[in-house]
Amino acid sequence: MRATPYAYEARFRTRTPLFADEGRPDMARDSDPVRVRRAYDPVEDDDGTRILVDRLWPRGVSKERADIDLWLKDVTPSDELRSWYHHDRENRHDAFVERYRAELDDATHTEAVDRLVDLVREGGPVTLVTAAKDVADSHVPVLLDHLKHVMKRT
To answer: Does the reported pTM lie above 0.85?
Structure first.
């Protein structure tokens, strides 16, 4: 596993808390405002608002099984960036993180991130759902880190 500044990438599992600055970052607690779950995992009663954070619908997962409350495509990397990254993940990870962070600061992404922040602040758990096979090596840790910083700023 490559070393990164993201607490969320270390030992990433199916549910990861947003603010895991203390303790084990791979263990979600009921008090954690944001959790992460793969689209292929069973839905749990305590998932709260389930938000799909992938640009494409998870292959082979019905809408009923996914039980998605909101699909925020605009918090995901652009098609171009996603395709570019998937062609050489090992050598492009650091550049991907930098480029995705820049995308998250553009107007389209900012509006969607603000909507996500509002949902987290409304209370109750929020579960980000992704089909990524390797969540730790996907866009999700970057999104979580960005969300954490936005929430601290505002």
So the answer is: no
Q: Residue ranges of the chain with pLDDT lower than 50?
A: 1-30
* CB-CB contact of 63 with 87 (8 Å): no
Instruction: Specify which residues 37 forms β-bridges with.
Output: 129
Question: Could you tell me the strand order of the sheet in which 34-38 lies?
Answer: 34-38, 126-130, 49-52, 70-71
**What is the C-alpha to C-alpha distance for residues 100 and 70, in angstroms, rounded to an integer?**
21
Token reading at 104: 């998250």
Give CA–CA dist 107/126, Å, rounded.
23
Q: Could you state, in order of their start, the residue ranges of all structural domains in the chain? A: 34-153
Amino acid (one-letter) located at 61: V
